[in-house]
Amino acid sequence: MTLSGLLRAGLVVLSVLLSPSGYSAPTTPNAAQLLEEMSQSFSKLDYDGVFIHSENTRMNSMRVQHQQKKGKEYESLVDLDGNKIQVIRIDNTVICVYPNESIADKQVMSSTPFKRFIGLDSERLTLGYDLVVSDKIGRIAGRDAYHLRLVPKDQYRYAHEVWLDKHNRFLLKHDMLDQNGGLLDRIQFTSVTFDPNLKAEDFIPNKSSYSKQMVEPKPRQIKSLWKFDWLPEGFSLVWPEARSLNHGTSMLLLSDGMATISVFVEPVRKVKPTSYLLIGATVAGEKTLKVDKQLYLVTMVGEVPKVTIEKLMSVFMPKARL
């Protein structure tokens, strides 16, 4: 074959190799599947990592250790700043560990910031968000990560961005963003290992510390006397009925699968002016409603834009005469 023939043959082979049918391009994973695998990874994997949680003007570093052993789930969460408070969870038993009793009376350890991601329903999320997976691989804490965006379909929820470990779908970073793309809340691992050398003592309180078992209150279920005349797409009541708290206060809970809004209703004697309070991603609103001769104070708290709380306040009403 002549040189020109070889050249033509080479060009033909090269064009086949570079054509879409000539090679298999890496496929972008399904967004819903990624979220479901992430949701399961918190309880299925063993891990030991340090992450930063920043919200509003506060920032703190925490260490989380997790292990599945002999049919039991062990978790330790330690605040690495300040008084180094620890929360130990063994299945459903939760123990709060303080350096001493005086600190226990003054400080309460916040719960794990990963709660919102456990038990995610990806189908439900698609009602309120567009799920978009980037075709570029990111890198967080020295690990390759898929970048997934939850883009709100309306003005009633915040945007979310997550970076999931490419190999095991573990959450390496989460950003919550306002309508203008401003950062409201961030969780980001700085280091994590999935082959930790965990020991039994990692989940046992130090003898010199003060420990207290946390008992989660179980409010009594009662018939709900209140309703919403409208809800943003994707939001629904978490409980079919209300929960009874102390002093005649009842509680309802709304969620769109990512954001939650707590609603409290209590009888009062005096009218309180309608007001709103914004702290980072959290918005709280209060409004007094009069039903016949009785006044009720309605309080709503959630990680949603202010317009959501304002709108929900305007459509909250009794189901019938109370």
From TrEMBL:
It holds the Pfam family MucB_RseB. The keyword Transcription does not apply. Gene3D superfamilies: Lipoprotein localisation LolA/LolB/LppX, MucB/RseB, C-terminal domain. Residues 31-204 form the MucB/RseB N-terminal domain. It comes from the Bacteria. Its main location: periplasm. Residues 1-24 form the signal peptide. Residues 223-313 form the MucB/RseB C-terminal domain. Keywords: Periplasm, Signal. It is found in: Periplasm. InterPro entries: MucB/RseB_C (IPR033436), MucB/RseB_C_sf (IPR038484), MucB/RseB_N (IPR033434), MucB_RseB (IPR005588). Belongs to the RseB family. This is MucB/RseB C-terminal domain-containing protein. It comes from Marinomonas arenicola. The lineage of its organism: Bacteria, Pseudomonadati, Pseudomonadota, Gammaproteobacteria, Oceanospirillales.
